[in-house]
Amino acid sequence: MELHRIGVKWFAEERTPVNLLDLIPIFHRWIQEQALDDLLIDVAEYTHMYRGPGVLVIAHEGNYGYDEAGGERGLVYYSKQNLPEPELAARMVTVACKGLQACARFLGETGLARQVAFPCNRIQVFANDRLRAPNTDTAWAEFEPAVNTLAARLFPDQDRSVQRCNSDSRDRLAAIIHTNKMTEPEALLARLG
Amino acid sequence: MNWNERLAGSIPEAMGREIDQYQQQIELKKQGKVEDKLFQEARLRRGAYGQRYDNGQRHDGIAQRELDYARRNLRKGPDTLWDAPGMQRIKLPFGGISPEQMEVHADLAEEYSDAVCHVTTRQDMQLHYVHIEDTPDLMRRLAAVGITTREACGNSIRNVTACTKAGCCASEVFDVTPYARACAWFLLGHRDTQDFGRKFKIAFSGCQTEACAYTGFHDLGYIAATRPGPDGQPQRGFAVYVGGGLGPVPYQASLLSEFVPEAEMLPIAQAVSRVYARHGEKKNRGRARIKFLVANWGIEKFRAEVEAERQKMPHEEAWTSWIEEVAAWREMPLREGQALPQDAGDTVFRAWRAANVQAQRQKGYAMATIKLPLGDISSWQLRQLADISRRLNGGHARTTIEQNILLRWVAEADLPELFSELQRIGLADADAKTIADVVACPGTDTCKLGIANSRGLAATLSEIYRDKAHTLDPAIRDLRIHISGCFNSCSQHQIADIGFYGVSRKVGNAMVPHFRVVMGAHRDHNAREFGQTFGPVPSKRIPDFIERVTGLYLAERRADEGFSDFIQRLGKKGIKPLLDELGRIPPRVLDRTLYTDWRDPREFSVSDIGTGECAGAVISTTEFDLQAAEQLHFEAQVHLDDGDYRKADDTAYAAMVLAAKGLVYSEFPDVRDNPDAVVTAFRERFHDTGRFLAANAPTRFAEYLFRRHEDRERNYSVDAARRLLEETQHFVEAAYACYVRMSEQQAKKAARTQQAPALAEDA
Fold this sequence. Notes:
The complex is a heterodimer. By secondary structure, chain A is an alpha+beta fold. Chain A has 5 helices and 10 strands. In chain A, α2 crosses α4 and α2 packs antiparallel against α5. Chain A is globular. The model of chain A has no long low-confidence stretch (mean pLDDT 97). Helix content of chain B is 41%, strand content 16%. Chain A binds chain B through residues 5, 21, 24-25, 28, 31-32, 39, 41-42, 44-53, 56, 58, 60, 63, 65, 69-70, 80-81, 128-131, 168, 170, 172, and chain B through 1-3, 6, 52-53, 58, 60-62, 67-69, 83-85, 103, 106-107, 110-111, 114-116, 128-129, 131, 137, 373-374, 376-378, 380-381, 383, 425-427, 445, 456, 459, 462-463, 599-602.
């Protein structure tokens, strides 16, 4: 599957509700410090929207956001440009790594670490390209093995499952990886190497 | 598989071909074969617009930094980097959007943008942060559901807007929808609308009195009217207005004609376009809108020119072929109209109904406004709305110039279910058309010209008033706030009750974001009076200003005195003390708050302002034709490489005819669009006069065209096609050279004309 536009969302657990507006100065600082590997361009703010993209860091290679899609907050990263890895599973790992780096950075922010955790026991992986990966059974048959590979890399010695999200055929092809154990983003990053 | 293959059969042929050509231009640009300026105008005419920071520079709050794109030398316009994200504008004539179109927008926003669709004040949809190389597929997917982005930007006819209530409104003369649609499609890509010096905006209104379509500030405005026809029956037509506009200095449109019968609606638009294309300013971009031409000439002279032009225009079938569609135009309601008692539902529902719902002219039906915060709707919401609209109102929706969506033909009995569904998807705010329903342009969020953060301020004001709008005195509750990030009026701040536009002020060594206040407008009668500009207020003090000025109004208004009348009575003197008080700014060391903008922690700076693309570049039709001819030559080469020599031959021939047509058109715009007419005119005007001849363009280059044109019984072969391709290349090159010579001669002539009076003065 020649899929390059891939997204991964790391669901958040908020001990106390995060005021999304507080993320704006933090994300601007990330740009000042070029805190992530991508070319960070600007901050986009959609806090006025219901279950919207929240606050985003727009980058050239992909977008990072603390979003509210589906009524669940989490840190999402989705790639927008072609990725160099030849295999889909490897591209998925790259995208997951970028998201995890952002999660780790997020938790490194004073204040946010007290409010938010990324338990990483439930992760959404989606294909952001309806041409190369439509939400069909055929595409799922190609997509699922790569998700399984990612799940195995993330949680090698844990019970885990991969489930297709298919409540609306118009949605993007997506999967949820479940595991029964919570793990820190830094630890998962180390596993992905 | 690509989108072209996936959508085979769904994309109208002409649209598909245009998009293929646009994609080829992208490829040619990447190969360095197209000039920056030409590509810029070409993409603008496809609605692909620049966005803030696309020159590769951004002030991050500490310093101006370079955005280090890998392909820094590749550009999509002068000072516009290829890889920088851009905005895609999508035209929705009269704001019409079907459920299927909503779903496509939702998909595109997810895959190419940031999962948000933004409704504009001209009923367009906009997607931000789009990469230029994604735009052809984005356009194909829209074309497959009947939407074009062609001429959404650039010096062209922009989206044709109309009253959102058209067809359902009690005060309209007749439904202007089919007329707006016919006008949009007739003028789209029309030869006579390709040579404008600036953009051109058209609006249709169903009546003279309401505040819906605002023909008063459009380049061309049609207001529905009837008069007795020869048979005594009412004959449909329009009062036509021309030369209105907002921008830094607003102009009221002038009456061009009290009544133009419907059959003359399109010819008049065409005649106005021709006059504007010929006589409108092209060099001074700040004076190039048609409003300046009308103001300079006066309406009488302008009218005379239009009438003279109208007499000269060769007949077109398309002028009237659409009229029979008007009678057939009908929006079919999904179910029978059914009334709902006024006291139905709980208080929350009743509040929503009071603010957001209006009864239709048709008994038992209602129109429901879905308030979109800042004009934004997410992909998920749009998909859900598509379902709701299919199920409850037959899919009849329109985007509004207040940046909302209107669902029409809802049976009143279905309103409770609609409300409940809108609550589920977070779109049931009960304050449409109130002080909380703030209109704002993108401002510094994404616009290259933005000075201050209009969206940040709008979001803040919406939050302040969302919960308390219903507790306010109705005279305050129903005020409308519009906010533009700069003086260019994209939020239409001159027709707000309280309007603002962004400016900056220097205090000490630092900059402070401000908004200039505009008040006193009357929106009725299609925006009969624009607001006056008052002084600037620091951005962070705008909420205080609104509280104070509305408080003043409540305290000092006369009986039945509206807000705008009160402001006019108070005048600039009356408002000045308040502005002076709020305008005092403490030094930064004492309070930094005022030195940053809303929802942006960076120290305020104007260094990110770029070169706007609203004006685009003036590229003549001839230049476009020559460029297209070159592209056809390229296509012919591809056909030959694919072994289709017959197609290669015909395409090369078409390229020569197009290049010849470009030259002919530059001085004979009425040339008929067929090869015989073009070749004859080219022979007379360019070959026989020796004008096509140049040192490096021997006369045989013209003969390449004549020979191929006269070869009616052509013997197609690979060799013949190959030779013709070579000849075509020479011919197109020679046409370019000829055009350059003509332009130089014209420039010299213009310089001589300018020098002559100066010399006379010296003497």
